[in-house]
Amino acid sequence: MTDHPLSKILPSFDIHSYHAGINMAFSEVVGVGCKQLALSSPYSHEYAQEMLGATIHAAEEYNTLLFVEPDLLVTKLFPRDIAKDKTVILIAHDQSVLDEYHALKALKKESDEKGNPDEIEDEIARRFGVLLSYDEATLERLLATHG
User: Fold this and answer.
1) DSSP string, the chain
2) Domain range spanning residue 49?
3) Number of domains comprising the chain
4) pTM for the full predicted model
5) What pLDDT digit, counting tens, does each position of 68-98 carry?
C-alpha cells in the first residue's frame, strides 16, 4: 500500500506502474524532441534500481539515453534538498544533452570552490533550465521561488 493520493481514488493503484508510466511518457516527449532532458521523480537508491528496468524499456522504445544520477545537480531552480540522498534518472534526447549536464556539474563544483557566486549560480540554473526545455517565464518563476 502507498500513501500516494491516487491510492484513495483508484482501488488498484500501483506505485511502480505509476512511476513506470511517468518515465515512459517522459521518454516519449524527450524522444520526439519536445524536451531535451527530463528527470524522473527522486527515488530512494533501492527504488531507483527497481524502476531501472522499466525506464530502460522506455528509453529503448523512444530512443532516449539514460543516466542514473545519485547526486543531482543542485541549482536555484528547485529546493536545495529536492533530491538529497535520492537517485534521479535523467532521460536525455542525445549524448550532447548529457555532456552539457556533466559540464554543469563541473561548473557547480567550481562555483562551490569559489563560495557560490550569484553570477555562476544563476548561469548554472539557467543552463539547466534550458536543458529541461523550460521557457523564460518558467525559469523566472522558479528562480524567484527557489533562488
Assistant:
1) ----GGGGT-TT--HHHHHHHHHHHHHHHHHTTS-SEEEPPPB-HHHHHHHHHHHHHHHHHHT-EEEEESSPPP-TTS-TTTTTT-BEEEEESSHHHHHHHHHHHHHHHHHHHTT--HHHHHHHHHHHHHHTT--HHHHHHHHHHH-
2) 5-146
3) 1
4) 0.93
5) 999 999 999 999 999 999 999 999 999 999 9
